[in-house]
């Protein structure tokens, strides 16, 4: 299967003044396949939103490449190619309240893309399309002439989803789409997204700060830490057989329903604070918080390697493969 999105050694740095550079995304490589949900997880400030925004070309790439359907996202594009890209890739945001124009009616919000791309022949067809989109996301047609403030958070996220769908995209970047919602509403939005994916063959990049939020929706998951990707594999594999110490600490933070499992599992607590991405630790960026840190971790950046089929990790513990000499010996856990 050919990837829909291919990211290779992508970097996105920001000049934050006084000669300081923020390495928000630093040498990240991965692929997203058609029809899959790729979960992207990490603490706030790890670069996951920047990565999402770089893929939709809200940001340029500092170096490296990203391609969509085989064509470079950041390379030179004609006006019509840009327009097609803007249609094909849509974004859903964390805060549906902030991302919706408060002065516009639901109809005008949803129809923005329809208008920009000239998808409706006349006003009647435009309204018809909006009504069908409201049906699709489970909102009432009578909501069409109301304003965003008249809706709950979950309903506003549905409006945001309808707006994204209006131009028939194939790839949707959802940046923490459920993080701001009540727990009871989160499942509804996730179920809606899954249903739309089945019906329309959508591909998702689903960004979250919490592994439990992406577990059920993701086919594969990438874990980011301080601008770098540290682990990537299938969702079940990540939960059953995490390799990177950072992933293990994230998993330890999720309570298990079964007390027996809870007692038997390896517990790792994340120590210390997140270092600044402006002056990150040398070598492995996780070393200041890693219970397994070795000498080599300070001097050499761990390589991004496929430790098992489809299971990628950047950690010196696996330099000699999965059964290598460097066995994890925890200090202080
Ligand atoms: Fe820990 Fe070293 Fe692996 Fe980094 S490379 S996660 S410091 S063991
Ligand atoms: Mg973010």
Automatic annotation (TrEMBL):
Keywords: ATP-binding, Nucleotide-binding, Transport. Signal peptide: none annotated. PROSITE patterns: ABC_TRANSPORTER_1 (PS00211), ABC_TRANSPORTER_2 (PS50893). One of its GO terms (molecular function) is ATP binding. Residues 5-251 form the ABC transporter domain. Belongs to the ABC transporter superfamily. This is ATP-binding cassette domain-containing protein. It comes from Paenibacillus dokdonensis. The lineage of its organism: Bacteria, Bacillati, Bacillota, Bacilli, Bacillales.
């Amino acid at each position: 299967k050919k990837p829909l999105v291919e990211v290779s050694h992508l970097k996105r740095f920001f000049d934050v003044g006084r000669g300081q550079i923020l390495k928000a995304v630093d040498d990240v490589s991965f692929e997203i396949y058609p029809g899959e949900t790729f979960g992207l997880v990490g603490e706030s400030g790890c670069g996951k939103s920047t990565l999402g925004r770089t893929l939709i070309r809200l940001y340029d790439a500092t170096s490296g490449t990203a391609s969509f359907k085989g064509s470079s996202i950041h390379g030179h594009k004609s006006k019509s190619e840009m327009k097609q890209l803007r249609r094909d890739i849509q974004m859903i945001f964390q805060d549906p309240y902030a991302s919706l124009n408060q002065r516009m009616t639901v109809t005008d919000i949803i129809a923005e893309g329809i208008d920009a791309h000239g998808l409706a022949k006349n006003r009647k067809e435009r309204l018809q399309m909006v009504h069908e989109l409201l049906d699709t996301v489970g909102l009432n047609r009578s909501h069409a002439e109301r304003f965003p403030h008249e809706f709950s958070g979950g309903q506003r996220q549905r409006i945001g989803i309808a707006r994204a769908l209006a131009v028939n995209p194939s790839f949707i970047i959802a940046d923490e789409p459920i993080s701001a919602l009540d727990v009871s509403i989160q499942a509804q939005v996730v179920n809606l997204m899954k249903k739309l994916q089945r019906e329309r063959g959508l591909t998702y990049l689903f960004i979250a700060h919490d592994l439990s939020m992406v577990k059920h929706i993701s086919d594969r998951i990438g874990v980011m830490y301080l601008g770098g990707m540290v682990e990537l594999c299938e969702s079940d594999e990540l939960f059953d057989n995490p390799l990177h110490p950072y992933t293990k600490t994230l998993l330890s933070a999720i309570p298990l329903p079964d007390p027996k499992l809870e007692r038997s599992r390896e517990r790792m607590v994340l120590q210390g604070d997140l270092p600044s991405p402006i002056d990150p630790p040398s070598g492995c960026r996780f070393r200041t918080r890693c219970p397994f840190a070795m000498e080599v971790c300070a001097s050499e950046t761990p390589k991004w390697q496929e430790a098992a089929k489809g299971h990628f990790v950047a950690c010196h513990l696996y330099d000699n493969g999965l059964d290598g000499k460097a066995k994890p010996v925890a200090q202080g856990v």
